[in-house]
Write a structure and sequence with these properties.
With 217 residues, the protein is α/β, with parallel strands linked by helices. It has 2 domains: 9-90, no CATH class; 106-216, Leucine Aminopeptidase, subunit E, domain 1 (3-Layer(aba) Sandwich). The protein has helices at 9-14, 22-30, 34-40, 44-56, 66-90, 121-129, 154-170, 190-193, 210-216; strands at 106-112, 139-141, 144-148, 175-178, 206-207. The longest helix has 25 residues, at 66-90. The two termini are 41 Å apart. It comes from Segatella copri.
Length: 217
């Protein structure tokens, strides 16, 4: 049996993308190489069908649709790449379930009320340990950041989340640990709040609860 050739990342880097062989393209898809997927996504259907044809003699079997086979193969590879990319984004960016101390550059992000009465839940922890100020319901205070969640429906929370994301973008030297805001006393579910943080997925200095990642990934 002919031994399958392994192509290293160095080999791919040395050769121009347009000069890769079909075997190299396929290996790139198996490895979820983003550059190769972008370059060859549509053309890959041709390669995939050739392989299936050789393996199963498709062209001599009535009723076999090449387009369906190609689409299924391409979709599977695309899903693999998407899952891989999401895992890369999440790495090191999942907020711990319990936080009792912070590094110097870390900020505890909690759900608050507009009156700034930090009496329970994560708000109380923020007040006792991370510098949250009674009477201040929005924004940075000490090593904490308040996002109001008690004033109404999800759409009333959205502007404050957007304001927070802008603030985080302006402070790349800080790392923000977002707790499951709104999912305690406020009565919301992760499915309600997590989509508000869609734009935070790409920001390396924002960590989200596992329950939020499960919704938006």
């Amino acid at each position: 049996m002919k031994k399958e050739k392994n192509f290293s990342e160095t080999d791919f880097q040395k050769k121009a993308l347009e000069s890769l062989s079909d075997d190299e393209i396929l290996q790139g898809f198996k490895d979820a190489d983003a550059r190769i997927v972008r370059e060859y996504y549509y053309g890959y259907c041709r390669v995939a069908y050739c392989i299936y044809d050789k393996r199963y003699d498709l062209q001599h079997k009535p009723g076999m649709m090449a387009s369906r086979i190609c689409n299924e193969e391409a979709a599977e590879e695309s899903n693999t790449l998407n899952n891989s990319n999401m895992e890369d984004k999440k790495k090191g960016r999942i907020t711990p379930r319990w936080i009792d101390s912070l590094k110097e550059n870390e900020i505890f992000v909690f759900g608050s009320n507009l009156a700034g009465m930090h009496g329970g839940g994560a708000a109380r922890i923020a007040r006792l340990h991370f510098g949250a100020v009674m009477g201040k319901g929005v924004g940075l205070q000490g090593q904490s950041y308040a996002i109001p969640t008690m004033q109404g429906g999800v759409e009333t929370i959205r502007p404050y989340v957007e304001e927070f994301i802008i603030f985080a973008h302006q402070h790349p030297d800080l790392h923000f640990l977002v707790t499951p805001i709104g999912c305690g006393i406020a009565g919301f579910e992760a499915e309600d709040i997590a989509p508000l943080f869609e734009n935070a997925k790409e920001m390396k200095n924002i960590s989200l609860p596992e329950s939020f990642w499960e919704v938006i990934e």
